[in-house]
Amino acid sequence: MSVKIFYTQFNAENKTAILTQWLSFLPIKFRDIISRYKLEEDKTRKLLGRLLLIEGMRDFGIPNISLDEVKYNPFGKPYLYDHIDFNISHSGNYIFCAIAEGSKVGIDIEELKPINFSEVHQIMNATEWLYIRAAIDPLREFYRMWTLKEAALKAEGTGFLTDPDKVCVKKDIVHIGNNNWFCHELFFDTDYSGHLVTSETQHDYKMIKLDFI
């Protein structure tokens, strides 16, 4: 099994240049989808996610993939091939694309922003909330558990159509029904939290930073 995480960043100074330089490389259908976003930041995140997928697949020996080949499961999870899985996440100025050969994969990153716990109480179960509130940094612990759960739900292919309260977290394994997801916390920026999950026991993965400007 091979797992690689391709990631990139943008900022206020280069987002327009990225859109100008790279948007025309995408199929018309995806250009139309991106053009519907009002904010340049959202357009840039969507574009860079697709570029990471294209370059990541090239790294796995599949050059020149067509985004028109992307299909979706009944819950909206995108996929390309049976033997290679991918998952994209973005938050703030970061965009990540995890690609796994021989395993299902999910990834989630979140920028650490203040949050009212009472408004998201249903996301965690009672035991998890006790753990979060007892932590030295409750906000960071909340995002740690949030990204872990969301990465697993994305790998599962159902997203939050599965009640996150029914997702059981035990150390480095997430249990969803009869499925076990093996977790890896990502450390890339102190202002962010992130997790990678795989369906197979995987202790090694490679992070590859790509620049598009």
UniProtKB/TrEMBL annotation:
Coiled-coil regions listed in the entry: none
Name of this chain's protein: Uncharacterized protein
Gene Ontology cellular-component terms listed: cytosol
Keyword Nucleotidyltransferase appears in the UniProt entry: no
N-terminal signal peptide: none
Ranges where the 4'-phosphopantetheinyl transferase N-terminal domain occurs: 20-98
Keywords: Transferase
GO BP, one annotated term: lysine biosynthetic process via aminoadipic acid
One Pfam family recorded for the sequence: AASDHPPT_N
Matches recorded under Gene3D superfamilies: 4'-phosphopantetheinyl transferase domain (3.90.470.20)
Family membership noted in the UniProt record: Belongs to the P-Pant transferase superfamily. Gsp/Sfp/HetI/AcpT family.
